Amino acid sequence: MVERASPLGSDFRPGSYGDFANGAEVTILELDRAGIVEATAWPGQEKALCEALAGACNLRLSAGSGNGAANREGVCAFNIGPGRFLVSGPRETLAGQLESAVPDTIGTVTDLSHGRTVLGIEGPKAEWVLAKLFALDFASAAFPVHSGCATAHHEIAVQIQRRGEKRFELYVSRSFARSFANTLRRAAEDVGYTIK
Amino acid sequence: MLIDCPHCGPRDLAEFSYQGDATRTRPDPASTDTQAWLDYVYNRPNPAGRHREYWQHTGGCRAHLVVERDTLTHEIHAVAPVRGNAKSGDAA
Amino acid sequence: MSPRRTSAGGSIDRTRTIRFTFDGEAHTGHAGDTLASALLANGVSLVGRSFKYHRPRGVFSAGVDEPNALVTILREGVREPNIPATQIELHDGLRAESQNRFPSLAWDFGALNQLGGRLLGAGFYYKTFMGPVAGPLKGTRFWMMCEHVIRRAAGLGRADYEADPSRYEHMNAFCDVLVVGGGIAGLMAAEAAAKAGKRVILAEQEKQTGGFARWSGETIDAKPADAWAAEITARLSALDNVRLLTRTAVWGYYDGNTLAALERVNDHVARTPKGHPRQRHWTIRAGTVVLATGALERPIVFPGNDCPGVMLAGAVRRYAGEFGVLPGEKTVLFTNNDSAYQAAAAIRRAGGHVAAIVDVRKQIGDEATALATEAGVVPLTGHAIVGTKGGKALSGAVVQAFDADTGRLSGEARPIDCDSLAVSGGWQPVIHLASQAGGKPVWDAEKQAFLPPEPTQRWIGAGAFLGETGSVEALASGRNAGLKSADKRPSRAKLPETAPSALDLTPAPVLEIRGKGKAFVDFQHDVTADDVRLAHREGFVSVEHLKRYTTLGMATDQGKTSNVPGLAIMAAARGIEIPQAGTTRFRPPFSPVAIGALAAERYGDLKPERLTPLHDWHEEHGAEMTPAGLWHRPLAYAGAGETVEQAYIREASAVRRSVGLVDVSTLGKIAVKGPDAATFLDRVYTNTFSTLKVGKARYGLMLREDGLVFDDGTTWRLGETDFLMTTTTANAGPVMQHLEYCLDILWPDLKVHLTSVTDQWAGAAIAGPKARAVLERCVTGTAVDNDALPFMGIVHGEIDGAPVMICRLSFSGELAYEVYCGAGHGVHVWEALLEAGEPFGITPYGMEALGALRIEKGHVTGAEIDGRTTARDLYLDGMLSKKKSFIGSGLMDRPALIDRNRLRLVGVVSLDGQPLGGGAHLVESGNRDEPGDSIGHVTGYCYSPALEKYIGLALVKGGKTRHGTRAFLSDPLRKRFGQVEIVSHHFFDPDGERMHG
Questions:
Q1: CATH C-level class of C166-297+426-507
Q2: Residues of chain C positioned with their CB less than 8 A from the CB of A31
């Protein structure tokens, strides 16, 4: 198996950065998601698609705007548009698995495993840092754990899933990943951050 | 300005792209009526008041929306997805 | 301790001394001071020179409304001009400079302008610099001649030429209730809303909440008002659902209850901590807004009212109460309402001396009289100030009997000795944000003030904003506003107790005392009462015209002290009431905002960089990178001592001779999937895709609805219902949007899904006679010979373990393939291709060589598909299917679009051996100085290694009909003129034998 190169470059390396004198208040990391897949239902097939995805990945996924789920094996999915879900997991075989699980009467599946870079941000100031970049309400009442959305930071489209009270995962197009990571890092400098 | 995307909820204007007048109708694709095509491509009403416009949520779910907006006050009266909205969408 | 500083009182910390400089001179102040209070404490009365007349000016107010005391701050390598000294918190090492003076503040050359004051009235520039209609100075030339002198003489602070190294940032916030203003009304509103469970943001523009309570000396709930305010603030800070933003000015109220605010995060400290912003720009989306923005005091306009030492009475009260600073040794108060009496008492309590209270009213109430008695004076009622004495500092005032009903002065004018004059013309609610939100302010004749309009967005007013002036009312309306914002009814529960005031803050309707000498309305723009009347005489009766003609209210303070007096004078001149004269709609910003704060993180990094999977490889191998939209692509890989031109000629020659490799990962790629995918493509492309066989690719052309060419590219059929569309690099986004529009709006019945997969794939084009031989050496799992992989065929295989998809297509005209692999495998596959190509001298090539190869071949790109060309213009008529309709087919045959004399694609060859120029025009005349009309222009050019001459593509009238003729390249900007031959755009291998081989 050929190893996959990270788009983030040599500047993205472990350490503490910014004003971390009082302890870094967020952690930023690149998440290793070997399989990233977009699955989209035909109109009227949203529920069927959710069931197919849930069955194939062992997820409790329901149709509807922004809904999401995750399982213990590290597979997660969330809604990013009408009838459209982003699914990711630790295995490269995810695309093939979902292609067999989603018949073309229900919808289509597109492999984005190489096309998206997943960044994690975690810590007490995660909401604070993200609020600098996105006009979204990150309060957990408005953005519960597992839910997700599609948004943008200027030119860069980003899909976000909340994975914990203080943990978010950001999916960005690979070509923008380095630029976006730099923007995210800069936004985290006032609270101090650690790259793992 | 905020647009209440039927899929994503209220989002900042910066996430949306204006996609033109939603009241025009595309001629039959095989039509050779040049005037009908010219009207469709170039002629636009410019009402002072309520107007129906297409907006795409490009920085979000990417769906096209019909936004009923007052061009004088910027007030948005209604936002509906184009798909599933029988009135919009011209026959092919 | 300075003579003006009281020994006790106020909220400054006398144990902490702070050192700062003003115009290079060292001064000290205390923690808690503003620059203005510290300068006053040091007895510095002269702090600036005025805009036009260079008149000496001193501190006039104590807050955001300051028109005079604008200074330049030098901090962390930046000079920031036009900052009100009243807004600058004193900190160690603060360096401030006065403005608009030369050579020094005290001896200012420009003060000579005062002598010519009559000439410099309203509209001076318009009238003087119109210029004669003819002659050497006609039109604007006279202005241009004088401009540099005037620009130097008139103005405020000087902007820096250096880049601003400060950090700014953006922040987004959402809340149920945004409370603007942290006075007692705002604090009550915030607590009521927070207790009801709402998410609350409270924004206060000053360093701490409390507002008026901080210096009023009042008592709330048996505590000093400032202590009460500190306690409620502490309670709010402890709540999870409340965010307190101090030093945060809400400056804009936009549609959808979206508000803009500027937080001055680190302007009050000597050095911004590492990683922290200087200022933070907040965009706040609020469910409901509580406007508790208070009121600002208005001056009375009278001759000499700009002399340093004349201040607002409320400001004098604040300097005494909050900073323990007396504005002078002997203060005269001049008023049309009772609030000056509070100031007088405050001066007395702080140990100062009140020389007189001059009141335009004939009678005053008992409570005011009591305050006057406390201040040790008997009010001079029915009198007015008609002039001042002193130049750089006030030395006296002139008083005369005055009838407020008739506006007539009588009796003898007599001087009063004083070094401080405190003026009150009544209070104007701060309704700027309410006006920005929409709706017209309402004039209240009783209160002599503009009151807030009916809300057109979701806001609720509280406190002095409503035109109420007492603390009792502020506490009640604040709590009610908070409850209402939480959809609750007004409460009957006990309010914090405070003594009701019997003072009458309703002003007598006197805002101007007319007399001899300049009486200023707008201090910052040097607009006098006479200027306003002059504008009226000259026909500027609308308030909007008046503003533009006199520039009244258009300076950095946006007329906070001048709008109402200016309007009153205009109304009087027209003989109408103030509401008939109207008011202007306030526009953002309420207070100045640095451009840097608006740009925030976009500063210095205007666009994100879009990088291909091979980016680092390119840079490590000497590529000079060039931007292509957001992408960065290699221009050429120049070796040591090689120019870019030499490098691309070497690279392109290698492709023609043997084999080269280029990164094409930037091409737009869209997955088009679904049972109706082929039908969909037939509708958006001019040619047919439903007939394309699985495993084959086809070149496609897209038009816009208007019939002009939109984009081109190849689309590959990977499965029966699975297509991969490629677009040009530049149009990837627009094409995606176009396709989405078609599916959502035109043909919602089609079952097709679109996904951008541009970033999923790394792409390398391998081109040249040896391309196949290279692939044969490294591709496994599939054959790549002509049978297995014919022209436009697609195969799947592996290169060094990485899955690849290979399509045989050519942009260079050579035998060529595009090899696609997962983006994360891009470098791995690229290096494997280079290794396999080593025996053939495989050469990586960049955009310049790619361009040269395509020009030799006559392939069009964005330079020719420029939004003005038709398929016929580019000789792509064959692509226009006659069997079906498609986007653009309705209008592409319009007469003007099929005119034979349109600009059409040709090749041009330089006949003088010199390079052509992109964008250069082609003309028929050989006369360099009189080239005549353009017959077209060059769209791209290069040195052709294959032809060994400079060639180019051009769009020329008539196109093909000119083949074999000569023309001239006219490029005066680049000083280039030379003869060219017009030829076919297919320069090289026109029959395509090489790529089909």
A1: alpha beta
A2: none
Of A174, A102, A115, A162, which is closest to residue A137 (Cα–Cα)? Answer: A162
| Preferred mutation among A136, A143, A154 to probe B, highest tally of B CBs within 10 A | A136
- Looking at the complex, report in whole angstroms how far the Cα of residue C255 sits from the nearest Cα belonging to chain A: 15
Question: How far apart (Å, rounded) are the C-alpha atoms in residues C995 and A8?
Answer: 37
Task: State the CATH architecture for A22-32+115-195.
Answer: 2-Layer Sandwich (3.30)
- Please tell me the distance in Å from B60's CA to the nearest CA on chain C: 13
- Cβ–Cβ below 8 Å for A7 and C822: no
Q: Which among A40, A113, A139 is the nearest to C822, CB-wise?
A: A113
The residue ranges of every structural domain in chain C are 1-162, 166-297+426-507, 299-424, 516-585, 668-759, 853-881+893-996
**Which superfamily does A35-111 belong to?**
Heterotetrameric sarcosine oxidase (3.30.70.1520)
| 8 Å CB contact of B63 and A82 | yes
Question: What residues of A are in contact with residue C198 (Cβ under 8 Å)?
Answer: none
Is A151's Cβ below 8 Å from some Cβ in B? yes
A154-165 residue pLDDT tens: 999 999 999 999
Among C670, C740, C744, pick the best mutation site for testing chain B contact (most B Cβ within 10 A).
Answer: C744
Q: In chain B, which residues have their Cβ closer than 8 Å to the Cβ of A42?
A: none
Which secondary-structure segment (H or E) carries C906?
Answer: strand C903-910
Distance (Å) from the alpha carbon of C664 to chain A's nearest alpha carbon: 13
CA C913 – CA C891 distance, rounded (Å): 42
Percent of chain A predicted with pLDDT > 90: 97
Q: How far is CA C334 from CA C255, C338, C419, C561, in A?
A: 42, 10, 14, 16
Contact present, C10 and C62 (Cβ < 8 Å): no
Determine the distance in angstroms separating the CA of C484 from the nearest CA of chain A, rounded to an integer: 23
Dihedral sign, Cα of residue C408, residue C411, residue C415, residue C416:
negative
User: For C853-881+893-996, CATH number?
Assistant: 2.40.30.110
CA distance C466 to C479: 14
Pairing of strands C248-254, C258-263: antiparallel
Query: How confident is the model at residue C117, as a pLDDT?
Result: 57
Residues C525, C526, C529: CA angle, nearest 5 degrees: 120
Whole-number Cα distances in Å, C193 to C135, C197, C231, C434, C822 = 70, 7, 17, 20, 54
Residues in B closer than 8 angstroms to C438, CB to CB, are 73
pLDDT digits (tens, 9 = 90+) for C136-171: 666 666 666 666 666 566 667 888 888 888 899 999
Chain C residues lying within 8 Å of A174, measured CB to CB: 613, 759-760, 823-824
Nearest to A65 among B8, B12, B14 (CB): B8
Question: What's the CATH superfamily of B2-24+33-81?
Answer: Folate-binding superfamily (3.30.2270.10)
Output the six-digit token pair for C61.
């107010």
Identify the bridge partners of residue C75 per DSSP, sorted by sequence position: C78
Say yes or no for a CB contact (<8 Å) between A179 and C608. Answer: yes
* Structure confidence at residue C160 (pLDDT): 83
Predicted-assembly ipTM surpassing the 0.90 threshold: yes
What gap in Å lies between CA C339 and CA C357, rounded to an integer?
A: 11
Give residue-wise pLDDT tens across range A74-122: 999 999 999 999 999 999 999 999 999 999 999 999 999 999 999 999 9
Is there a contact between C714 and C699 (Cβ–Cβ < 8 Å)?
yes
